[in-house]
Amino acid sequence: MEKKAARLYFIDAMRAWAILMMLQGHFIDGLLDNVFRDPSSMTFGIWKYFRGITAPVFFTVSGFIFTYLMIRVPQRGFENPRIKKGVKRGLQLLLIAYLLRLNLFGLFKGMLYKSFFLVDVLHCIGLSILAIIAIYLLTHRAKKIIFPLALLGVTMLLFIFEPVYKLWDLSYLPNALVNYISKANGSVFTIIPWLGYTAFGGFLATIFTHYKHAKNLYLVAIPAAAISGLLLIYFSSQLFVLLSQWSGIELFRAIYSNNYLFIRLGDVLVVFAVFMMFREYLKNKTLLRIGQNTLSIYVIHFIILYGSFTGLGLYYYFNHSLSPEIVIPAAMVFMFVCSYLALTYDTYELNIKAVFNKIPGLARTAIAPGYNGVSRALKPYVARFLKALGMVKS
User: Fold this and answer.
1) Cβ-contact 8, 276 below 8 angstroms
2) SS3 sequence of the chain
3) Where are the domains of the chain?
4) What is the predicted pLDDT for the residue at 178?
5) Residue 186, by phi and psi: left (phi above 0), alpha (psi -120 to 50) or beta?
6) Cα angle value 320/322/326 (rounded, 5°)
7) How far is CA 54 from CA 61, 178, 243, in A?
8) Given this model, what pLDDT does residue 114 score?
9) Could you tell me which residues come within 8 angstroms of residue 198 by beta carbon, excluding any fewer than 6 positions away?
10) Distance of alpha carbon 226 from alpha carbon 85, whole angstroms
11) Looking at beta carbons, which pairs linking 213-222 to residues 24 or more positions away fall under 8 Å?
12) How many other C-beta atoms lie within 10 A of the C-beta of residue 224?
């Protein structure tokens, strides 16, 4: 966002909250001993519920930020500069996602372990960005209302038909593709239904963009988000029961029996309402920088916790073995370390990139004398060899 005044600080703060929640959630879930996972414990139940909110919020905010930046520029269609940047960003996220799951020890053996093909957050967000771009390009010549309706339609379709496509038999497809659609092989996230949250974030972004100059924007948006969210949390399941009884369509009853998507969507809206309500108190520079550097934090946490490239992360040594007295303070330290390293990288990013950009030139300078010497020494022999083959006359 070019103008500082136009920046939605509560979105950066929300993304910071989501990434920090993800850090502690991954850490505690991966290292806490199973003995202490008591479903009857109120403390564990509250932690587990809020951990379940993290991913929907993160996906929704990611879709919101990308769409908000894309549609706020005056250019439309392929002339929009955010299209090229978005495609580059989406492909970059996919590349980073696969690199993080690469095991160098296996690669040296000529092997790619099955875990390399599993799909996670970055895969889904990368593909979701590309999907939003595709929807935008397909609808940019139509009336402006078509784009947000298309995004909302994608969310509804993916959420409503989840009981159908989760039963698909995809055994005829390669696992590398199946993992984007099914969790059968161990994928943590899949593009369906998680694209639905990203598309919903894009839908919210179009509303904020349209009404960004309205004096009563937050006066209306806060209660609207809170009420809509609470209705989805407490009454969406009953709605699907009524729809099933009224229409006789079994799909609605199937949604009711596992209505986590719409309930979590309600949670997302309530979180939006809370952060909008306290937006004036969420302008701490460190908090906002954390929200603006979530990719770096994610990469660092993945390497430390899960041992990207080597497999020797904290998860390898302490998998489900720690007590709450150890894992809770350790999670706090983990959050601080990942954030500190990411913000330090952000501070010196230009210098670090400049050093890496110089490496090819320094390498050429270092090997040039030896290369020239070898070339001069071999030149007579190469000439004789080519002459013997009749490829040169002298």
Assistant:
1) no
2) CCCHHHCCHHHHHHHHHHHHHHHHHHHHHHHECHHHCCCCCHHHHHHHHHHHHHHHHHHHHHHHHHHHHHHCCCCCHHHCHHHHHHHHHHHHHHHHHHHHCCEHHHHHCCCCCHHHHCCCHHHHHHHHHHHHHHHHHHHCCCCCCHHHHHHHHHHHHHHHCHHHHCCCCCCCCCHHHHCCCCCCCCCCCCHHHHHHHHHHHHHHHHHHHHCCCCCCHHHHHHHHHHHHHHHHHHHHHHHHHHHHHHHCCHHHHHHHHCCHHHHHHHHHHHHHHHHHHCHHHCCCHHHHHHHHCHHHHHHHHHHHHHCCECCCCHHHHHCCCECHHHHHHHHHHHHHHHHHHHHHHHHCHHHHHHHHHHHHHHHHHHHHHHHHHHHHHHHHHHHHHHHHCCCCCC
3) 4-325
4) 93
5) left
6) 150
7) 11, 25, 30
8) 86
9) 59, 60, 62, 63, 124, 125, 128, 129, 131, 132
10) 33
11) 218/276, 218/279, 221/273, 221/276, 222/273, 222/276, 222/277
12) 14
> From residue 349, how far is each of 112, 344, 352, 357 by CA, in Å?
31, 8, 5, 12
pTM of the model: 0.87
CA-based nearest residue to 223, from 234, 215, 211, 231: 231
Exposed e or buried b per residue across 46-71, where buried means at least 16 C-beta atoms within 10 angstroms of its C-beta: ebeeebebbbbbbbbbbbbbbbbbbb
pLDDT tens per residue across span 100-155: 999 888 888 888 888 899 999 999 999 999 999 999 999 999 999 999 999 999 99
Among all chains, which residue has been given the structure tokens 């010196």?
Answer: 348
Which amino acid is it at 169? D
pLDDT computed for residue 2 by the predictor: 39
Average pLDDT over residues 45-51: 93
* Cα separations in angstroms, 380 against 191, 383, 390, 393: 60, 5, 15, 14
